[in-house]
Each structure stands twice: as structure tokens, then as C-alpha cells.
Amino acid sequence: MAVDVAQLVGRAREGKPRAVARLITLVEGASPQLREVMAALAPLCGNAYVVGLTGSPGVGKSTSTSALVTAYRKAGKRVAVLAVDPSSPFSGGALLGDRVRMSEHASDPGVYIRSMATRGHLGGLAWAAPQAIRVLDAAGFDVVLVETVGVGQSEVEIAAQADTAAVLLAPGMGDGIQAAKAGILEIGDVYVVNKADREGADATARELNHMLGLGEARQPGDWRPPIVRTVAARGEGVDELVEALEKHRAWMDEHGVLAERRARRAAGEIEAIAVTALRERIGDLRGDRRLGALAERILAGTLDPYAAADELVAGLTGD
Ligand code: GDP
Question: What angle do CA 90, 280, 296 make, to 5 degrees?
């Protein structure tokens, strides 16, 4: 059923959660109205501050996200949470979004929480999450917290989609070594040692500090990722975390880094959408005469796979 996009966008900007949900569903499901929706959102985007939260399962991402929502709400900001689960094929608000820890914000009209699963999703994470972020941005949320659920390399991908990436660790999880392995030492703008009430928090922070210091010599004016200690479960250190995030944001503004990052992000979005479209069209060719004919020529030794692919791509983009 066709929807009145302008009206829907208007309602979303008034903070009506059902309108926001509907818009995300439209862009997530690649509806026929997707293009109309994205065009309507375009002039409204660019105001939200997007913070990514990553880290191993159990470090306290969900608890920290909830605590951050509380802190930003106290400051009068409208906050959206996008919980992205790259390991699950199930999407939608109810399945994951219904999490108990977030329930304290459930009745707050200034808060919107949405889960998104991207496994098996057409175009995957690179395609789906940025479009949902656009909806939330256009809907007028001041802060969008993008939290990863589950594990994997996609953590790096999500960090790349944020303005500021916060990497969480916790003591006693062998996190230092894990962090180095996962390459998250390169992606953090702010590091959080959560569960600072637990033994070993100092050692984790020290180890992290040491590892961060091993990087290249910094230039004056470079950003030195701070390490913030929190007890998210009790809301301790969360104001300091907000302060660290805001400092990073101010630094990015001052050095033109924010615009640079957002331009890189937009380029990545275009690429993901274009590649998805191309892949779809090539997929449609399976069993098609053209692809079959090219394969025959490879078998006959009259064509090599590179030349065949060039011919195929030229044929697809030439029209
Ligand atoms: P996630 O998997 O990274 O989202 O982690 P969760 O937020 O679900 O937290 C995992 C567990 O750690 C939960 O049982 C939390 O209650 C607990 N937890 C979170 N923050 C803290 C903290 O600061 N201190 C302690 N001791 N436990 C915490």
C-alpha cells in the first residue's frame, strides 16, 4: 500500500514513534517507495550526532547505551538507539528492541529504540544501517547511538558508520588481547573500561593505555583517544563518558574531521547501494543466455573470465 511520504516524515519529525518505525521498515525492506522516502529525507539529514558502541558480548554495551540515553535525556536531547545484530536474520522492533534493560525508556517520547538484524540482508550491514541512521537523523534525533549486538568483523564496519566510535572493554575478559586481535585498537575514538567496580579494571586500563601508546608518534593537535572508566550498571562515569564524546565531537568540528568522515560515509553508502544493484542484476542473469554464452566461450578457450566479466559489466551499465 502506498503511503503519503511527506505526511509520514512530518509525523516522524514530531516524534511519533510509529511514523519513525514505518519509515525504517520502508527503507529496510527496499520498498517500491524507498527512493521517494530517501529523497524526502535528504534535505533533513546531517544534524544528528552518531555514536557507535562496540565491544565483545558481555562487556556492557547494552547497559552503557541505556545509561547514555539517561544522560543525554537529562541534557534535554532526543535520543535514538539502533541495535544492530549482524549475526541474526531476524529484524524488527519487537524481537530485540523489547529488551528489558531498555524498558525504563520505553514510555519516554524523547527516546526511540530499534533493532535491526542484517544477516542475509540484501547488501548487508553496509547498506541497511546507514539508511536507518538517515531516517533517525531526519526525524530530528539529536543523538543516535548505534550499538552492536553479537560478534564479528562487522564491529569495524559499524564504527566506520559513526561520527564517534566508542570501544568498550571490561576487566577479566582477556580483552586487551582480544582487542588487538580484532583490530579495534585502531577504530576507537573513545575507549571505555566498563565494570570498573570489578577487580582488574586498573590493569585493563593500563594495558590499554600502553597498547594505544605503541602507535605512531602523534602530531600536535591529533586526537588522543581517552580511556574512561565506568560502572554502567550504576551510572557511574557516564557523565565523563558523555564529556569525552562531546570533546571528540568538538575536536572533529574544529579540524574538519567530521565533514571528512561523513563524506567518506556517504561515499561508502553510494558504493554499497551501487554494488548491491549490480549484484542483483548479475544475479538476475543466472540461467540467462548472455551469461551462459560467455561461459561457453570460456570453456572453448576463446575468452578468459576477466574479459567475460568486463563484457558483462559493460553490457549491464551501458544502457
Ligand atoms: P553487552 O552484551 O555488551 O550488551 O552487555 P550487557 O550490557 O548486556 O551487560 C552484560 C552483563 O554485565 C549484565 O549482566 C550487566 O548487568 C552487567 N554489567 C553491565 N555493566 C556493569 C558494570 O559496570 N559492573 C558490573 N559489575 N556489571 C555490569
Answer: 130
